[in-house]
Structure formats: structure tokens, C-alpha cells
Amino acid sequence: MRLSRRDLVASSFALAGASAMASARAETASAPAATGSGEIIELWPHPPAGALHPDMAEIVEQSSSDPAYSSRRIKGVSRPRIIAFPAAQPNGSAMLLIPGGSFAWNYFEHEGYRVAQILNRAGISCFVLIYRLAQDGWSNPASVGPADAQRAMRVIRASAARFRIDPDRVGVLGFSAGGFLTTTLATRHSAPFYAPVDATDRLSARPFLTAPIYPVQSVDPAYAFGGVAPSLFGGPPTAAQIREWSPDLNVTPEAAPTFLVHAEDDGTVPVANSVRLRDAMVAAKITVETHLFAHGGHGFGVGSWLAAPDGPWLPLFLNFARQQKLFS
User: Fold this and answer.
1) Domains along the chain?
2) Which of 97, 106, 111, 254 has the fewest CB atoms lying closer than 10 Å?
3) Positive or negative, the Cα torsion across 247, 253, 254, 258?
4) Is residue 148 within 8 Å of residue 108, measured between CB atoms?
5) pTM (two decimals)
6) Cα–Cα distance measured from residue 103 to residue 192, given in angstroms and rounded to the nearest whole number
7) How many helices (H) and strands (E) does the chain have?
8) Which has more pLDDT, 146 or 296?
9) Is the per-residue pLDDT at 245 higher than 60?
């Protein structure tokens, strides 16, 4: 996914249209290079199988041209993990944060760490997911991200006592391609994306609530982001793949309450993705709150939109989360 705004977060005033920053700096990274100050928690007891390039190295790239603003991204992930950012004054709630990046990158700072810092102030402990990417080359590219997201929910719950969180009050918030994993968790949290590996997999992967932000959601070419099917399936989707992998076609009464944000002028992921999911949630009588902004484009994350440090949508999310009793 070529993101129209993701790389423009270098300036807190950047909203005017421009192409993504072209001259990024890249480096081969060891795992700690993308951890910030958080604790690394490996998702799997052994490296997952199925990599088509088992010797691939992690690459961390700086996508910002502003030396005062860091906006890093990572690819080549073969060791999926979560980075823990516990709240200083925890209220017992937690959120799994899933950055986007076109199924080719994981933008772990402005759609991960910075969001965690804001939610931490509200007493919400956060866990940023560094997940396997469909475009990195896996034998089952559509399933690797959802499998890591499911496993992350279970690992967080297994670690609840250590982080002073209520295992029942764990939600998920994801952006763009990370929104695909988020909406999949909302609707298919019990699907067998992987075979159980240990006792942790006996725990539920159902989120308490979900927040897909400008999400890739449908894989139907009539509505989908153009890169989703090539990334997940290697080409145009079949009718069966559209039915299986479009979350709006998989909403049941077991779906999680959902908070949606999208911009009408998103030129990368059509706003129909959020609208169709909203309509399916309403039809199934699932609690859903939807915010469609006239302007914002794609990839605005936090810290860039309308010069607001937290962005205008995060206070709306916190209000929704409070109303849903994620915290009091």
C-alpha cells in the first residue's frame, strides 16, 4: 500500500497533499532496534514455520525526513513479538496496538509507540504488535498476520497478573493493514488461524472491544484497497476468498463492539471499508460507533492531524472505551 499520508507525519502541520518521503534511511536491524523502551515479549515458543525466505533479516527504515521527528518502520519480521508499555498508574485495562504498512511494512512508531504513550496517560497498558507481513514471503500469507494477532491477545491475557490488568478487559486498536487484523479479530476471533502450541492457546482471543482506524477491511475488488488481494492471495481474489476474508461478511452476534474512524478523502483505502463494516455491525445488533471526517486522507495516525498532539479521534475513542466499561 503506497500511503498518501503516513510519511507526512514528520510535521505536525502536514495535511496538504504530497507524495511519501522518498529518501528513507535503512539499516539491518536486530530485534531490539524496534522496541523503544518497552519490554519484548516473544509470541511463539519457537520461530513460526512457513517462511519462504528463512534467512531474511529485519530491516528498520526511517521514513521521516525531519531529524526532530522519528517515524520508523520495520519489515522482514520472522520473530513476531509484542512490545509492552505498561501504564504508570494502571486502571486494569489493556489495548493491543497493531500498526499498518500495506502488508509490506510495520509503522511501529506513529501507529504504535506514540499511541501507547497517549493511552498510558489514561491508565491503559499497551502492547504494540510487531507481526509477520504477508509481503515478506510466507506459505500462508493471508493467515500469518491474523495468527500473530490472535496469539498476541492470548499472550497478553496469560501475562495479565504481571502487568496488573484484567484479562477480560483487553481491546485491540489497529491502523490500515493493521485494521485488517483488528477487524478480523473483531469478527473471526475464534477461527483456527494456527494450531495450538501450548496452554496459552486455551485462552480466548476475543477482544473486549476493537478500534479499526482507516482500516483495510473488505477484499472485494469493488471496495477494497488495491494492494490487499495481491498481498494476501498473490492475485485477484476468488469468490470464496472474498467471502472468507472480508470481515464485513463475517459479522456474527459474537463480534466485538467496534469504534471506527475514516476520512472521506482517503485516497488509499476507500471509506466504504468502514461504512460496510458499520452496516454489517448494525444489522447484527453489535455496538458500533463511527466517525467519518471530511478531511484527513490516509495514514494520519497521531501527532499530525490538525496540529493536535493526540489527534481529534483519540479523545473520541477514549470516550467510547469508557462507555463500554474498558475502564471507569
Assistant:
1) 6-323 (3.40.50.1820)
2) 254
3) positive
4) no
5) 0.89
6) 21
7) 8, 11
8) 146
9) yes
